[in-house]
Amino acid sequence: MLTQLDIAQSFQSPIVRVLLALIGAALLYVLWREVRKIPPKLFTLMTTAFVDMVGLLMIIPLLPFYVKELGGSGIEILGHRFGIGIISGFIVAAFTVAQLISAPMWGRFSDRVGRRPTLLIALSAAGLAYLIFGFAHSLIVLFLSRLVQGAGGGTVGVIQAYVADLTEPKDRARALGWLSATTNLGVALGPVLGSVAISLGRRDLMPG
Fold it and tell me: Tens place of pLDDT for every residue, the chain, 208 residues?
């Protein structure tokens, strides 16, 4: 059986490094060729979906520290005490619950008003909520801002419908595939960007 030492030593080989570099370059070349074929409007919609997912997950690394700063060791409601973990869970869930409820409403609204105005209104509301979240000084404001963010981010269905409207039937599967890939990229990078934001902040929330 290969040990970790054997695997580590294999990566020290110049031949292995050259092969990995060639494989990486080939993958980047294929990706670049595909990205160049993406229409500008589709790229804009992909960016919107990416921002939605980043907004959902970017706060995960810093939320417990944010909650602790605003709520201390926890809060008591109707005789029940809620700790930092439960409060953080409620705030995270607030985004997804609001997104779940608002998604059908945004869909109906976009059918009547149009896809583009719907996305502009929703993104403007979400952007304002992100600003409020950044300057929140109480748990209530923090919670309400996440609700508005989720409501403004419930546009995944609208984006998918917009993609279907913009693309020909023969290109629709590829376009939706790109949209799905961008969404997954937002899921992957959201927590990373949140951690980077912590390190760039005025105070280190996670010393050591």
Answer: 445 545 555 556 677 677 877 887 887 777 677 767 777 888 888 888 888 788 778 877 777 777 777 766 666 666 667 677 777 888 888 888 888 888 888 888 888 988 888 888 888 888 888 888 878 788 888 888 888 888 887 777 888 888 888 888 888 888 888 888 888 888 888 888 887 777 776 554 444 4
- Domain count of the fold of the chain: 2
Residues contacting 20, CB < 8 A, separation 6+: 11
Helix (H), strand (E) at residue 82: strand 80-82
Of 160, 193, 208, nearest in space to 60 by CA:
193
Pair 13, 44 in one domain: no
pTM above 0.85, yes or no: no
- Segments forming the whole domain that contains residue 15: 1-37
Check whether residue 152 and residue 85 sit in a common domain.
yes
The answer to whether residue 188 is domain-embedded is yes
Q: Tell me, yes or no, whether 145 lies in a domain.
A: yes
